Amino acid sequence: MSTLALENSIVKDMALAQEGHLKIDWVEAHMPVLNQIRKQFEAEQPFKGLKVTISLHLEAKTAYLAKVVQAGGAEVTITGSNPLSTQDDVCAALVEDGVTVLAKYNPDPVEYKDFLIRALETKPDLIIDDGGDLVTILHSERPDLLATIRGGAEETTTGIIRLKALEKEGLLKLPMVAVNDAYCKYLFDNRYGTGQSVWDAVNRTTNLVVAGKTAVVVGYGWCGKGVAMRAKGLGAKVIVTEVDPIRAVEAHMDGFEVMPMTEAAKHGDFFVTVTGNRDVITGEHFDVMKDGAILCNAGHFDVEINKIELSSRASSIRTVRRNIEEYQLQDGRKVYILAEGRLVNLGAGDGHPAEIMDMTFALQAMSLKYVNDNYETIGSKVLNVPLEIDQQVARYKLESLGIQIDELSQEQITYLDSWTGHE
């Protein structure tokens, strides 16, 4: 165990480490793409002598990403990106592995913010962010900590929205790679990862059947597509609500009913919000919901379901099962919220499957290396993941599955590159 990591860390209980090691060992065995990258990093040491600060949902798969970055020579500090997604046993295990950890399950808001700031006060050279909390602190409260940072990578839609707002206003002070927008992220993580992990969490938390009920999916981006697809597979009738007319047409052609939330609210047994926006379920919707409606959120922040307006309509609020709050409304109806309206798949579950996060975290690791290799020339802007990195992750994934594909011949390449000879 690293004495320095132990001295600098704040975790709940180091006695939990053994269980955390078992969790990390399990995901390591199911993350072959990251294993391949770890071998490269161990040989090349791309982060030798550098400090890396990570803010992600702190569970076993994230822990293994931290160990892969550490294997590349970095001194790693990690904190959570959501109060309910941190797993204390994983935190303790990481400390034993020499990673500085500043995180506990369900800290109060002040403590949660303090962990983020402390992680930045290590003066990292590179960062990995999830939801934009690190970047927001750097650009608002602690710009003094920007000096050492070469750049970083952002995990999710919400964070990219915040980054692009900074960039649009000319305020962004470092290069950040938009990992969420890579093909190997949104096509697989957002769709298959979110689709499965949301319903895993709903099922294990409620112990109720989905088949034969109506699921309302709020938002039909890539996460919404996955949630709707899995709900259909579980036997639910699916309604989609959207503000984007193109996505609404797509949902219709995918076989789902499409209607405004004011109408969908009357029909839903389960509601899943996946918009990245605020107040998509509000008072007017609670007023018409069925008795027993179950609501959850799979967007990054707990603002999609307006709990203030729900509370104002409640005569009583109580916790009826772990991660289930019952709001009894003044007319006698009951509405339930899972995981306090926070990310349900991590607040009430283990997050995406290991094989899915294998690809996403491979993108994170390789994007971090890309920023470190190029930070002096790329400037302060939001960058797409380079296509060659995206494709390399896909190749590693195919190799791990034992799948081979065709390659273009030189004649085919020449044909595609030419504007003549297409008769």
From TrEMBL:
Enzyme class: hydrolase
GO biological process, one term: one-carbon metabolic process
Localization annotation: Cytoplasm
Needed cofactors: NAD(+)
InterPro entries, alphabetized: Adenosylhomocyst_ase-like_sf, Adenosylhomocysteinase-like, Ado_hCys_hydrolase_NAD-bd, NAD(P)-bd_dom_sf, S-Ado-L-homoCys_hydrolase_CS
Residues that hold substrate according to the record: 130, 155, 185, 189
Gene Ontology CC entries for this record: cytosol
One annotated GO molecular function: adenosylhomocysteinase activity
Principal location class: cytoplasm
Known catalytic reactions: S-adenosyl-L-homocysteine + H2O = L-homocysteine + adenosine
Keywords, sorted A to Z: Cytoplasm, Hydrolase, NAD, One-carbon metabolism
Pathway terms, separated by semicolons: Amino-acid biosynthesis; L-homocysteine biosynthesis; L-homocysteine from S-adenosyl-L-homocysteine: step 1/1
Binding site for NAD(+): 156-158, 190, 219-226, 242, 277, 298-300, 345, 352
Protein EC: 3.13.2.1
Cofactor binding annotation: Binds 1 NAD(+) per subunit.
Domain S-adenosyl-L-homocysteine hydrolase NAD binding: residue ranges: 190-351
NCBIfam families assigned to the protein according to its UniProt record, in alphabetical order: ahcY, PRK05476.2-3
Similarity section: Belongs to the adenosylhomocysteinase family.
Entry function: May play a key role in the regulation of the intracellular concentration of adenosylhomocysteine.
Protein name: Adenosylhomocysteinase
